[in-house]
Amino acid sequence: MTAATLFQSILASLPEIVVVTGACILLILGQLVPKGQGYFLVWASAATVLVAALATLLLAGEVRPAYSGMFIADRFAVFFKMVFYLSTILTFLLSRKYAEIEGIALSEYYVLLLFALSGMMIVASATDLLSIYVGLELMALSTYVLTGFLRKERRSNEAALKYVVLGGVSTGIFLYGVSLIYGITGTTQLDAMAAAVTGDPLDPGLLLAVVFIVAGLVFKVGAVPFHMWVPDVYEGAPTTITAFMSVGPKAAGFAVILRVFLNPLVAASDAWIIVAVIAVVTMALGSFVALVQDNFKRLLAYSSIAHAGFALFGVVAGGADGIAGVMLYLLIYAFMNLGIFGIVIMMRNGDFSGEVIEDYAGFAKSHRGLALLMLLYLFSLAGIPPTAGFFAKFYVLVALVERGFVMLAVIAVLLSAVAAYFYIRIVMVIYMREPERAFEPALTPSVRATLALTAAGTIGIGLFPAWFLRLAQSSVFGG
Amino acid sequence: MAFPLLSLIVFMPAAGAAVLMFLRSDDAVRWTALGVTVLDLALCIAMLAGFDTTTHEMQFTETRPWVPALGITYALGIDGISALFVFLTALLGWICVLASWVAIDRKVKEFMVSLLAMQALMLGVFCALDLFLFYVFWEAMLIPMYVIIGVWGGDGRVYAAFKFFLYTLAGSLLFLIGVIVLYFHGGETFDIRALTAQDLPFRVQSWLFFAFLIAFAVKVPMVPVHTWLPDAHVQAPTAGSIILAGVLLKMGAYGFLRFSLPMLPEASLYYSTLMLSLSALAIVYGGLLALAQDDLKKLVAYSSISHMGFVTLGIFTLNLRGLEGGILQMFNHGVTTGALFLFVGLIYERTHTRSIADYGGLMKAAPVYTAFLALFTLSSMALPGTNSFVGELLVLSGAFAANLAVGAAAVLGALLGAAYLLGMYRKVALGPASIGVRFKIRDVNARELVAILPLAVFVLWVGLYPKPFLNIIGPSVRHLLTQVHSNGGGQ
């Protein structure tokens, strides 16, 4: 590797380098900052992310392959990185007060979030099964620790342990698939794989390898049949981390799925049938099981399973519109889901957990504005226009019908009608019950800022989707 | 670009709702809401004054790009059919505000915001010329309506609100798939005018016809998907019932007129007998159910099912008289049934009972009230001289021309209507004062009279001189018929 190509590689991965370096510096600085100066860490971490975002935008002008074909900085990666930055910064803002209340305002908390971010960024840019693996593991290891961050709570410990064990198994399965691929094609690079296969694309060995890789990736997005960890981990983890996991790592999982699945090799192997079945079952399970949940965090866990199912329909559709559909879906989902989690996080104050749906009875009476925001997020999650959630679903449906999958589209909308029920049930509790106790939400300026931003995104993308749609369409790779 | 009158009409209530959010006192909220809705009506009258009744073309059109990548535009415009319903919506808007003046005494601000948002969205549905825009308005209505029923409704409001929401959502989601399929078959556009000009294969038309039918039939509602209506009506506050009966039910029928007939002419012709039979079933079944009710609101709700049966019957006769009658009957039903729900609401505010058995001899206690009630009851049973007579006569003559058996069933339904409406009036207004209402009942006051009078005027105006109304819809109806019969392969 000459100095020039090395420089090019470093330039292409500059945002990742910024985040990793920032995280390392903060790890050391965190030990020196006196207690009570916690806000410094928040702002320093946020500044790191902003610098990385700036670098990403400045370098977005051209496609930069790097590290001998293991890494690429293309528009597809830029789009996903923006979603990651957004979710990480909003998580920082939400964590400020929450971490203090829960007693977890340690520097490691923010540093681990930054490491998770860098893992997701590598995943979005990876073009080789091995660099994908490195990114996924960096992301996963950081989130394992964050899940167990409430050290004194059994629920949190249990969740972390479950997550580690199941995550380890899924990683093993993924790696096994990679090794099979390497055995058959002699390469792990996504582009070279397709070229290396000369024979029948339906070779059983290849199919087996694809199935293993599918299993490993589907675990990350929490789709059936690898969804079992989601409710427990979402419930046990600190709520801020739950919010982060439901948006960031999930989007990273989809970035890999899009890159791997829409690779000509996999596309030729009829893997879409597997994905279609997974999508239907995932959405059905998420929607129906969420109907009977009383715990808000568990309900949001099943809701996120259902949403993963809907986004998988976009993967099934494939093509430029399908890919753009998934990307837009994830962006919009980031806004609305962080919004609703922002409310749940804000409710955690004093001895009040705000985790049970009944806790919100009569919320509209005491807090009109916040209740209205909740209504907005919930209807957006349910996919009712004019919110952004509707447009996200609409565009995926357009992609499905375009490819002739009308029956899948019908299934998708019928299941989203089921899902609508549990969202509006919460609206019912907020608006149509009498309050049983006084609310004192921890409404700090940074939480306010988060809610304002997510609300603006939820309603803004709903009313003026044109710009965001064009952004997603122009960020589709190869299209 | 010309003055965007339609955008102003559609978005003024929405802007009003935004202003309401910043007001503190309940009275200021009420007066502002009233001011906005009256101004909106004034704009609608100005729109009708400038409306050209000689053409079927869309008028007052506005087009702006919205999502160019998918061919979605922000396009508004009205023809004769939609003009009538834009006017009806605006007419009922301020009456709803007046009807809730004292009936809504908690969370007044939220109520008026929902009401105004509802009005903006309903006006948007009737004005939209882009299928995507139409769908956004159509579906967004669920939010304020759900809140109106669920927060300010009666004891069973939560159940009713859920039922309303899920029925209509499930129906319209299939419509959404239909819209997307239509988009790809019609050359990747959502422009309603361009889609109308398409000639789709019969198989596609059939599928789309049923996808649309489910959505529209739930809204109308047609038997057997009508069961959400009695619950929603009984539980909704008075203004909610007026909106439901007056405007929301019309949207299903409007959907048939705007989409099913012109876009899917072959399928509409092919399945017209099915639709006629379903309509006749709704007329008779709704009438029989109404006959058995003791709850005033339920009675009017079931009569709505029967009356909306006349509307769909008229539409699917697919001849001039039937269609004109059906559309006119949509307007009439909005006025008359809106008024009847208003009357039920007025008396409920005084006695807090809706059971017919509790009433009797109201004529002595509230003569003005009972006099107007008589007018609207007679209008609802289509007595000559009232609005519904004109509409029903046109529908029936169209129906007999289309299908003798269906026409006969419709006449039976009209007879049933006379039976339950006269029975209701006799028990409520005549006879000795009953135990339940023996105490002194206040007659209508000035505010209530202001709400009632315009509706009474329209009952008589359409009844005695329907020509201006038929003139408005005439060219559009004739154009619609040529579209159906020339593209659908003649009659």
Automatic annotation (TrEMBL), chain A:
Pfam families: Proton_antipo_M. The chain crosses the membrane at residues 6-28, 40-60, 72-94, 106-124, 130-151, 163-185, 205-229, 241-261, 273-292, 299-320, 326-348, 369-392, 404-428, 449-469. NDH-1 is composed of 14 different subunits. Subunits NuoA, H, J, K, L, M, N constitute the membrane sector of the complex. Belongs to the complex I subunit 2 family. It catalyses: a quinone + NADH + 5 H(+)(in) = a quinol + NAD(+) + 4 H(+)(out). NDH-1 shuttles electrons from NADH, via FMN and iron-sulfur (Fe-S) centers, to quinones in the respiratory chain. The immediate electron acceptor for the enzyme in this species is believed to be ubiquinone. Couples the redox reaction to proton translocation (for every two electrons transferred, four hydrogen ions are translocated across the cytoplasmic membrane), and thus conserves the redox energy in a proton gradient. The keyword Cell membrane applies. This is NADH-quinone oxidoreductase subunit N. It is an enzyme of class 7 (translocase). It is found in: Cell membrane; Endomembrane system; Membrane. The lineage of its organism: Bacteria, Pseudomonadati, Pseudomonadota, Alphaproteobacteria, Hyphomicrobiales. Residues 126-416 form the NADH:quinone oxidoreductase/Mrp antiporter transmembrane domain. One of its GO terms (molecular function) is NADH dehydrogenase (ubiquinone) activity. Keywords: Cell membrane, Membrane, NAD, Oxidoreductase, Quinone, Translocase, Transmembrane, Transmembrane helix, Transport, Ubiquinone.
UniProtKB/TrEMBL annotation, chain B:
The keyword Oxidoreductase does not apply. One of its GO terms (cellular component) is membrane. Its main location: membrane. It is a multi-pass membrane protein. One of its GO terms (molecular function) is NADH dehydrogenase (ubiquinone) activity. GO terms for biological process: ATP synthesis coupled electron transport; electron transport coupled proton transport. Belongs to the complex I subunit 4 family. The gene is nuoM. It comes from Mesorhizobium prunaredense. The chain crosses the membrane at residues 6-24, 31-51, 71-104, 111-129, 164-184, 204-222, 234-257, 269-292, 330-348, 368-386, 398-423, 444-464. It is found in: Endomembrane system; Membrane. Keywords: Membrane, Transmembrane, Transmembrane helix, Ubiquinone. Residues 128-416 form the NADH:quinone oxidoreductase/Mrp antiporter transmembrane domain. The keyword Transmembrane applies. This is NADH:ubiquinone oxidoreductase, membrane subunit M. It comes from the Bacteria. Pfam families: Proton_antipo_M. InterPro entries: NADH_Q_OxRdtase_chainM/4, NADH_UbQ_OxRdtase, ND/Mrp_TM.
